[in-house]
Amino acid sequence: MDDTFALAGAVTVITGATRGIGRETALAFGRAGASVVIVGRTTDAAPHQALPGTLQSVLAELEAAGVDARAAQADLLDEEQTQSIVDRTLEWYGRCDVLVNNAAYTSNGPIMQVPASRWQKGLRMQVVAPLQLVQGFVPGMLERGTGRVLNISSDAAVELDPGVALYGVSKLGMERLTQYLDAEIGGQGVAVNCMRIDRPVATETWNFVFERQGEELGLDATGIMEPDLVARQIEWMVRRPTTWSGNVVGIDDIESQGAPSDAG
């Protein structure tokens, strides 16, 4: 029996969707027929100081493409605002079928110099907020016997690069959370996986950091990927059969299994 997941008609929630991988994933899911709830902090009224993209601009792109979409402005560092994502999605659609935890918080610097308050924000963004959204949406998925959770990690979780300890530790926590979720709820129709972005991706944020701190952080643009390709790989992962769960996989891993690639 074909157990692949159909995005057509699915309600999807994507965090960090005002630019980069999140924006491209929203567009890819929308083209596949999904209803899309985009989540972010940046709005037309309060734009990012340096980076393009707002909830309104992405929502306009989706609607122009004929996608059924809504925008939920929320700061995932705040517990009540995170809960509002669950509340509004259930009010709008009555359910969430796919949750993509893509939002991230970084605060680069030597481990002894990044204050504890920023560590709390990093762990909140990369571990606690995704868990809060899982606890809000996954019970409904389990009741219906179908659903997908995809967490977006980074090679910082496994590389010991000076200056990115906060990001690496928190992303490693996200990866372990993925595995624990599968261990406890796997086999009930809901697949939980984690994509480790282990190649540079030409997002607006990456380009911004590369231009200003690239040499200091030792960033390398070799083999850089476009965000729309990563979005198509995320779509590929979400469509896998339910038994394909509990995976923490890098780009080479999924490409070797048939995910879209630069090669074809």
Name given to the CATH homologous superfamily = NAD(P)-binding Rossmann-like Domain
CATH fold topology: Rossmann fold
Overall body shape: globular
Secondary structure category: alpha/beta
Content of β-strand: 5-15%
Number of helices: 8
Trace the largest sheet across and list its strands. 3-2-1-4-5-6-7
Report what the structure shows.
This protein has 264 residues and is α/β, with parallel strands linked by helices. It contains eight helices and seven strands. It has a single domain, classed as Rossmann fold. Helix content is 45%, strand content 14%. Helix 1 packs across helix 7 and helix 4 runs parallel beside helix 5. The longest helix has 29 residues. It is globular.
Describe the structure in brief.
The protein contains eight helices and seven strands, in the order βαβαβαβαβαβααβα.
How would you summarize the topology of this molecule?
Elements: E1 11-14, H1 20-31, E2 35-40, H2 55-64, E3 69-73, H3 79-93, E4 98-101, H4 116-144, E5 147-154, H5 165-185, E6 190-197, H6 204-217, H7 227-239, E7 248-250, H8 251-256
Parallel strand pairs: 1-2, 1-4, 2-3, 4-5, 5-6, 6-7
Helix pairs in contact: 1-7, 3-4, 4-5
